[in-house]
Write a structure and sequence with these properties.
InterPro entries: DUF4926 (IPR032568). The chain has no helices and 5 strands. The chain is mostly beta strands. The protein has a 5-stranded antiparallel beta sheet, with no helix packed on it.
Length: about 70
């Protein structure tokens, strides 16, 4: 399992409807919660504006890879 740390870019594996976010949304970890484990994540629009900040459980995210990024 890949260790996710602050500033890791991640992809939602499932949506967070309470934040209006769908699976596949990319964000950046801004805080790692140790107990219980989880992440505070900032999500951005394609133009770089913050659209949401929310908490996700480890099973809800994975590390972002280059193929997740949409070309400009």
């Amino acid at each position: 399992m890949t260790l996710l740390t602050e500033h890791s870019r991640v992809v939602l594996m499932e949506g967070l409807p309470e934040l209006g976010l769908s699976a596949g949304t990319i964000g950046t970890i801004i805080h790692v919660h140790r107990e219980p484990p989880g992440y505070e994540i900032e999500f951005f629009s394609p133009t770089g504006e913050t659209v949401a900040i929310g908490t996700a459980h480890p099973h809800q995210v994975r590390l972002c890879v280059p193929t997740d990024m949409v070309p400009a």
